[in-house]
Structure formats: C-alpha cells, structure tokens
Amino acid sequence: MKKLFMVLALASVSVAGMAQNETPEMKYSVATNSFWSNWFISADVMYGAFYSNEEKGNDFKKSPFTDYRRNLGASVAVGKWFTPGLGLRTKFQGIWGRHVLTDNADDNAIKFWNLQEQVLFNLSNLFCGYNENRVWNLIPYVGVGVLRNCSDNEYAHGGSIGLLNTWKLSKHVALNLDLGFNVSDDDYANASAGHAGYGHSIAQTDRYFAAEVGLTFNLGKATWNKTPDVDALKALSQSQIDALNAQLADAQAENDRLQNMINNHKCPEAQTVTVKEVTAAPVSVFFNINKSKIASRKDLQNVQELANVAKEKNAKLVVTGYADSKTGSAAYNQKLSQKRAETVANELVKMGVSRDNIEVVAAGGVQTLSPISYNRRATVAIK
C-alpha cells in the first residue's frame, strides 16, 4: 500500500507541475480571486461494485452487476478551485457496501464510509484555456484518505483515482458524472478473519469501482476575472505620446514654412497671417491580441479631431490596419489587419466622414514597433 501512495503522490506532483506550465498558454490570463470565491458543494447517488481481498482463490464472477458485488450509496463533497485548472475537494462517500466473502449478497452486506482528500485537474481549462461559457469540463483527480467498515469496526488507509465530468446547467449549477476507482488496505474487509498473512501489494487490497451522478452547486463568485492586457495599456500610453510628438512635429514644420514665406516675401507692406493648426500626422488606434475590437475608446478622441479636419476640408482619410508578425500566419494576419482597419473606418463613418472619403488598407503582420504588441493597431491619416 505504501507503494501505491507513493505513485499517487508522484502523479499529483507531476500533473500539478503540468498545470503551472500550461496556465500561461490559456486564451487569456485570469486574476486570483479571494479565499471565499470559487467554492462548490456536490451531492451524488453512487453505484458501487466491490472486489474484496477475501475472495482470493474463489472463482467468483467478476461482473460489476452481480448482486453480491453491487450496492447503492451516496456521496457529498465540498471543495475550492484555486485556479481554473487546479482545485481540492473533501469527499465523503458510502452508506452501503460489500466485502465479498461468498457469492451470497446477504453475507456480504456491510455499512461503510470513505473520507478522501482529492486533487482536481480541469484539463479543459488547462489545455483549451479558461472559458466561463464552456458547457463540458473534463476533470481527472487523485486522492488519499481513510475508510471505515462500520459493520466490522475496521479502519483502513485508502487511495483513489477517477474522472469527473461536469455539464453546466446554469452559472451556479452543473450536472456531474463521476467515475472512480478506490483501493484500501485489506484491513477494510476484516482481513483478520483469515487473510492477515497477505502482503499489502495492490493485488491484495480491497477495491471498489464507483459510478456517481448528481449536481454540483457553485457558491458565491463562480467565475474568474480577466487580468488587464499590460501590453495594450502600454500601447495606449505610447499612442498618446506618439500623438503629442506628431502634433509638435507638425506645428514645427508649419512654423518653418511660415518663417520661410516671411523671409522670401517681397511686399513692403506688413501682412498678418492667421494659421490654423492641423494635426496631419497619423493617429493610432490599438487592439488586444487576436482582436478586432478597439482596446480603448479613448484612442478615438484623436481620431475625432482628424475626422473634423477631414470633414472641414473635404479631405480623404487613409485607414491602415496592422497585426503583429509574431503571432498567427501571414494569411491570418492579413485578414485580421483588414478587420481592424474596417473597424476604425466604421467609427469614422459614425463621426460623419463620408465612406467615399475613406480608403482602407490592410498591411498584414508587421514588426515595425517595439515591443511587438504595439503593432496591433490601425492608423488614420489625411491623404
């Protein structure tokens, strides 16, 4: 039995390590919730098929449906998800069980309970990314605990492995199907009655399979919050700086042009020149990775100014969409850059710019700005 516990411990450590490695590759990252978030309770009806150490040497049928093996029971569990892919639950299982001494169902009936601490691994979230709208989740688990044969007043150490399937019915309720395999020391089935001489290998343990159907109830907050896209926030700040720098450069160029006109003007009469500052430099609108929805509506403030100038002068605007070349294929980035450009063009139309005065260009995946996330953008410029 010690060997079995070592195997279960190693399995839990290895899979937990896998969960840590897979989490950064999810569709999006999630923020850590408070201690009181993501708790759940479940209640199931159990069908159990028992295989006792005492039947060794007897040619009993192995079918889990024979009446001297099977029995009904129930289970309840309470647990918490610490990440979308890793959780713990405490599970109490039992009521009616078997120790298979004979092929007579009445001889084998006992009352028992099994208390386990189990580690849950949500493979759907670990490998496919967290999605709060996902209906089906595949959740293997491993656990250790203690069993008691109440009829014979025997205790034993136990271990379990299993596969939990859940189907979302609502935000707080899920249907679950739990298939588990449990092993214990041969003490569980009163080994002292003539089988104490067996060793504690897996072949000499008491075992039972359990199929459970029931409901899981999520308590309190049952979802996970997205973490902010840091790259996008940096890009938004950089876009504001780029816009200011562009305005300064444009104003300086206009001042130089006016100064040159004054220096070369031959008319002796003094003239007063009124200059209206025009922002002609491209304005950037940024997007999150793999998205064609504008990351921040604040970017449209600069676009509005450019749209006003274009309407006043009946000028044409060029909207150029970009994607970063580090993610996605060239064909996919071409389509994504087109969508981003179309999104900004639609915003310009809402601002009153004629669609005939808007030219849309898809530049595909590029790496002109650093960091690479700054390339997830669309620019607007007066043609």
Please give a structural write-up.
With 383 residues, the chain is an alpha+beta fold. It has 2 domains: 2-219, Porin (Beta Barrel); 230-382, 2-Layer Sandwich (60s Ribosomal Protein L30, Chain: A), CATH 3.30.1330.60. The chain contains 6 helices and 12 strands. Strands 1-2-3-4-5-6-7-8 form an 8-stranded antiparallel beta barrel. It is rod-shaped.
How many domains? The number is: 2
User: Which architecture of the largest domain would the CATH scheme give at its second level?
Assistant: Beta Barrel
Per DSSP, the total helix count is 6
Q: Tell me the distance between the termini.
A: 78 Å
List keywords for this structure.
383 residues; alpha+beta; Porin; 60s Ribosomal Protein L30, Chain: A; 2 domains; 8-stranded antiparallel β-barrel; 4-stranded mixed sheet; 6 helices; disordered N terminus
